Amino acid sequence: MTDLKLQDGQTLLFIGDSITDCGRARPVGRIGGGGLSDFGGLGEGYVSLVDSMLAATCPGRNVRVLNAGISGNRVTDLESRWQSDMLDLKPDWLSIMIGINDVWRQFDNALDPRQVSPEYFESALRKLVDSVQGELSGLVLMTPFFLESNRADPMRVMMDEYGALVRKVATDVDAHFVDTQAVFDDYLVHRSSRSLCEDRVHPCQTGHMLLARAFLDSVGFRWS
User: Fold this and answer.
1) Under the phi-then-psi rule, with left for phi > 0, alpha for psi from -120 to 50, and beta for the rest, what region is 202?
2) Is the peptide bond before 27 cis (omega within 30 degrees of 0)?
3) Of 106, 112, 185, 188, which is least packed with CB atoms within 10 Å of its CB?
4) Is the pLDDT of residue 71 over 60?
5) pLDDT tens, 149-175?
6) What is the pTM of this model?
7) How far apart are CA 69 and CA 141, in angstroms?
8) CA-CA distance, 84 to 86, in Å (whole number)?
9) 47-51 long-range contacts, CB within 8 A, separation 24+
């Protein structure tokens, strides 16, 4: 695993919404003492899978993984908790996946006055990223996604727009970038979205494995 960019002794923090949360422990999801998942740990999603894969294949490289995902979060929620749930934890590496609820709330709760426009989403994400520039060894930005193969579906169209904004920010700051929508699109060529979830948002374990694999690819993990 010589190409792996995560170094021994570094801390990797994941922050985001329910896809990251996945039942993780509070106040911060982490593996318990001695490497045991004895406090509810990292939840049951891609964050836990990333940690397990790193531990299983790189036992000599001790990467401490933290999970600060919160179900329902939008980029505005990340802004309000950035100090306590990111800056105060002082990670070496940070992964952000946000945007699904910023889009979804515009469809299932259109009258909510707290809607996040594309312009505000980009500005807020850029501000958060700028606040940690120079403080991190590495930054990974992951797009939001919608598990719908019909690209003309209105929510899929908007999700793609917000995903493009994440790509733009990642390019501007030279961050590692994960196009989660593209990962799922490749899968949906062969199988229906119902094989991943019922609501086209919260994936089953197969979907989380796809996310974990995509994240690991982005940080130089070698699968052979």
Assistant:
1) beta
2) yes
3) 112
4) yes
5) 999 999 999 999 999 999 999 999 999
6) 0.95
7) 14
8) 6
9) 47/14, 47/20, 47/22, 48/22, 49/208, 49/209, 49/211, 49/212, 50/12, 50/14, 50/212, 50/215, 50/216
Total residues found in the chain within this entry: 224
Count Cβ atoms below 10 Å from residue 111 Cβ, excluding itself: 5
23-45 per-residue burial string, b: 16 or more CB within 10 A, e: under 16: bbbeebbbbeeeeebeeebbbeb
Give the residue from 109, 172, 183, 116 showing the smallest Cα distance to 146: 183
88 vs 34: CA distance, rounded Å:
23
| Residues with a known catalytic role | 18, 199, 202
The residue whose two tokens read 């403080």 is: 135
- Whole domain around residue 164: which residue ranges? 11-218
- How many independent structural domains does the chain possess? 1
Amino acid at 55: A
By mean pLDDT, which of 24-33, 133-142, 200-209 is the weakest? 24-33
Residue 223 lies in a domain: no
Q: How far apart are the first and last CA of the chain?
A: 9
